[in-house]
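Milestone 3.1: sequence recovery, worked example.
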């Protein structure tokens, strides 16, 4: 078995994606290049091509991961079963607590990258429209007028983008402590004790 074969068995697509993710979120898309990634992983540059056709294929895989994880999970949480609008928001707020559901670092990196990439900006615009539509429909399900629902949905989205772009750092405990207040801001009413207790129970 030669060196290339050993490298191929030890590394998988996920290893290259993870390395690219770290570089993308730390230094931007311009820094995501095959040779530096290979050095980072301690392998020959040629081993990259066992996993991806070229750099563009790697970047496309990263964008697809962002679309599926961030936009996909946000929409799924907005559509999750809820008895009240407060519970629906708490379902959504899981995304702001669990990095496994929503990756803020990746979202910021994608937004920064899209500023100089028109094609990616178009995909980002589509993703933001999907998010806005999902949150608007969430409010409408609980009796909000369509126009009011849109405003509340946008307020939530713009607040979260602000959190991400400002790179606000809060402990999980502190962020959770603010969420009943955010529910009241976004819905016009505080959550019930039952809704709050159910939310806190899964994050205790």
């Amino acid at each position: 078995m030669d060196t290339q074969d050993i490298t191929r068995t030890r590394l998988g697509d996920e290893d290259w994606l993870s390395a690219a993710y770290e570089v993308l979120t730390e230094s931007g898309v311009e820094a995501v290049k095959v040779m530096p990634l290979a050095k980072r992983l301690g392998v020959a540059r040629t081993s990259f091509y066992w996993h991806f056709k070229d750099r563009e294929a790697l970047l496309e895989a990263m964008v697809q991961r962002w679309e599926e994880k961030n936009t996909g999970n946000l929409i799924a949480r907005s559509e999750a079963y809820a008895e009240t609008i407060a519970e629906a928001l708490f379902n959504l707020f899981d995304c702001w607590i669990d990095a496994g559901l929503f990756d803020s670092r990746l979202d910021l990196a994608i937004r920064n990258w899209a500023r100089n990439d028109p094609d990616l900006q178009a995909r980002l615009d589509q993703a933001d429209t999907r998010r806005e539509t999902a949150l608007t429909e969430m409010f409408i399900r609980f009796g909000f007028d369509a126009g009011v629902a849109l405003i509340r949905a946008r307020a939530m989205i713009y607040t979260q983008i602000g959190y991400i772009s400002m790179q606000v750092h809060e402990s999980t405990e502190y962020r959770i402590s603010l969420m009943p207040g955010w529910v009241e801001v976004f819905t016009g009413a505080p959550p019930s004790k039952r809704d709050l207790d159910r939310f806190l129970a899964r994050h205790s």
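The CA atoms of residues 20 and 32 lie 6 Å apart. The chain has a mean pLDDT of 94.
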